[in-house]
Specification:
The chain is α+β, with helices and mostly antiparallel strands. The chain has twelve helices and eleven strands. It has a six-stranded antiparallel beta sheet, with helices on both faces. Strands 3-6-4 form a three-stranded antiparallel beta sheet. The protein has a two-stranded parallel ribbon with strand order 5-11.
Length: 370
C-alpha cells in the first residue's frame, strides 16, 4: 500500500523548482507491486508527454544484453574483439565485455558524434580509430556514450537485428511499454517529447572548492550544449544507446517493477539476481572517491549508507539499483520496499550541485512511499 502523505510530500518537492522558474516542467511516477500508484506532471507538460532520459537509458540497453548472456551467445569474460574484430586496434584487443559494462574498459573519451554515429559503417570505422585513455580494468572512469555503442554493436551482430528493434521486440514490447519507452523514436512519433531548455548558472570555482575540494570538474562530452542536442529529430530517431532513450515517468517506473517481479518472464531469476545485486565494480569514483558499486549495467546504493552520494536517496536500502541521467533524471527500484521511482525533467540546469540535491531529496521521499 502506498503512503499517501509521503506522495503528497513528493508532489510538493517536485513542484518547487517549477514554481521557482528553475525548470520548465517535470514528471514523476511511483510504482509498487507491479502497478503505478502515482503519476503526475508539473509545469508546461502533462502525463502524456515524454522526456529524453539521458543515461537512465543505459539499463534498458543492458537489459537486452542480458538476454544474450542468458542464451549463452555472449560471454562477458571474453574480449570485445572475439565478437567485433574491427575493435582490435591500438591495444583495445585486451578489453573484455565485462569491462565495457562496468566502465573500466579504458576509452571513456572515445569520439563519436552526429556524423559518425548515424550509420553502422561509420560507427565501426570509428571503433578502429579509438585509442585507450588508460589500461583496461585498472580504474573506473564513466563512459558517457562510447561503451554503449559497443553494446549496441554486440546486439546488432549477435542477434542479426538492429539494436533498437531488438529492444522493442524483446524488452519493451513484452512489458507492454513499446509505445512509451523507446530507444530510437521515428521523427513522425516525436510530437509528445518535451523540448530541452537550458536553465541556471554553473557552479563557481570557489563553491566547487568549498564542497568538493576541486576548482574544476573533469572535462567530459556531457556538456549542456551536447544535452540540448537531443532536441534534434535525427538524434532522437537514432536512439543513442548511452543516453538517447525517451519515456514517460510511469513507463520507466514499470520497467523497474519488471526488474523486481519479471511479469513477462523475460529474464531467468538467477540472471536477474546477478545483474541487479552482484556488485562487480568497487573501484573509486574520480570525484567522490567512494566505491562505485556497479553491477552489469546498473548502479547500486551500496551497504555503506552512502547511497545518496551515488545518485540514490537517504532512505532506500543498500540493495536499491538503478541509473541516473544527466539533467537530474532519476530511475531506480528498491527490492526491500518494492518501490520503484522515476523523475524526469526537460530543464538542463547548469548548477549540478542543485541538481544533485534535488535528486537526493526526491529519492529520499520516494523511498518512504510504501
Amino acid at each position: 500500500m502506498a503512503n499517501h502523505d509521503k506522495i503528497e510530500q513528493l508532489r510538493t518537492r517536485a513542484q518547487r523548482e517549477v514554481d521557482e522558474g528553475l525548470l520548465p516542467s517535470c514528471q514523476l511516477a511511483v510504482a509498487l507491486d507491479g502497478k503505478v500508484v502515482h503519476h503526475e506532471a508539473f509545469g508546461e507538460a502533462s502525463t502524456d508527454n515524454r522526456y529524453v532520459m539521458f543515461s537512465a537509458t543505459k539499463p534498458v540497453v543492458a537489459s537486452a544484453v542480458w538476454l544474450l548472456i542468458q542464451s549463452g551467445d555472449l560471454d562477458v569474460s571474453k574480449r570485445v574483439v572475439d565478437y567485433i574484430p574491427e575493435f582490435a586496434s591500438f591495444g583495445k584487443d585486451a578489453v573484455t565485455v565485462e569491462q565495457v559494462m562496468l566502465h573500466t574498459s579504458g576509452f571513456p573519451a572515445a569520439p563519436l558524434g552526429p556524423l559518425a554515429w548515424s550509420t553502422r559503417a561509420g560507427r565501426l570505422e570509428r571503433f578502429g580509430e579509438w585509442k585507450l585513455n588508460f589500461e583496461p580494468g585498472t580504474m573506473f572512469v564513466y563512459h558517457p556514450t562510447s561503451a554503449h555503442w559497443v553494446l549496441a554493436e554486440l546486439l546488432d551482430r549477435l542477434t542479426g537485428v538492429d539494436y533498437r528493434r531488438f529492444i522493442a521486440e524483446q524488452i519493451t514490447g513484452p512489458l507492454g511499454l513499446a509505445d512509451r519507452l523507446q530507444v530510437g523514436v521515428p521523427v513522425d512519433q516525436q510530437g509528445d517529447i518535451t523540448t530541452l531548455e537550458k536553465r541556471g548558472e554553473p557552479v563557481s570555482p570557489d563553491e566547487l572548492e568549498r564542497l568538493l575540494g576541486i576548482r574544476e570538474l573533469p572535462v567530459t562530452e556531457v556538456t549542456d550544449d551536447a544535452l540540448i542536442g537531443f532536441n534534434e529529430p535525427d538524434t532522437r530517431a537514432l536512439g543513442v544507446p548511452g543516453g538517447g532513450g525517451v519515456t514517460d515517468a510511469a513507463s520507466m517506473a514499470l520497467f523497474y517493477q519488471a526488474l523486481l517481479h519479471n511479469p513477462a518472464g523475460i529474464w531467468k531469476d538467477d540472471l536477474l539476481l546477478d545483474v541487479t545485486g552482484n556488485v562487480r565494480n568497487h573501484l573509486p569514483d574520480q570525484i567522490s572517491q567512494l566505491p562505485v558499486e556497479r553491477t552489469l549495467g546498473l548502479c547500486t546504493a551500496g551497504a555503506d549508507g552512502k547511497g545518496s552520494l551515488r545518485g540514490f536517496g537517504k532512505t532506500v536500502s543498500g540493495r536499491t539499483f538503478g541509473h541516473a541521467g544527466a539533467a537530474g533524471q532519476i530511475a531506480w527500484a528498491d527490492p526491500e520496499s518494492g518501490i520503484s521511482f522515476c523523475y524526469l525533467t526537460n530543464g538542463v540546469d547548469a548548477n549540478f550541485i542543485r541538481v544533485a540535491r534535488r535528486g537526493t531529496a526526491l529519492s529520499s521521499i520516494a523511498g518512504e512511499c510504501a
